[in-house]
Amino acid sequence: MKTHKDLDVWKNAISFVTKIYGTTEVFPREEIYGLTNQIRRAAISVPSNT
After folding, report:
1. Closest to 24 in 3D by CA, of 42, 8, 11
2. Rounded to whole angstroms, how far apart are CA atoms 10 and 18?
3. Which of 5, 25, 43, 46 could connect to 13 by a Cys-Cys bridge, CB 3.0–4.6 Å?
4. Do 18 and 47 contact (CB within 8 A), yes or no?
5. pTM surpassing 0.70?
6. DSSP reduced 3-state for 30
C-alpha cells in the first residue's frame, strides 16, 4: 500500500460522495444552503476520516 487512496474503503467513499453530489443537484435551489449543504458535508466526511 502506497497511500490511503489505494484503500478500497476510500475508493468506495469517493464513489459515494460523487453519487451524493449528483443526487443533491436536483434538490430545490432554496435548499442549497440548508439540507443540500448538510448532506454534502456529511458525505465528504467519510473519505476524509478513513
Report:
1. 42
2. 12
3. 46
4. no
5. yes
6. helix
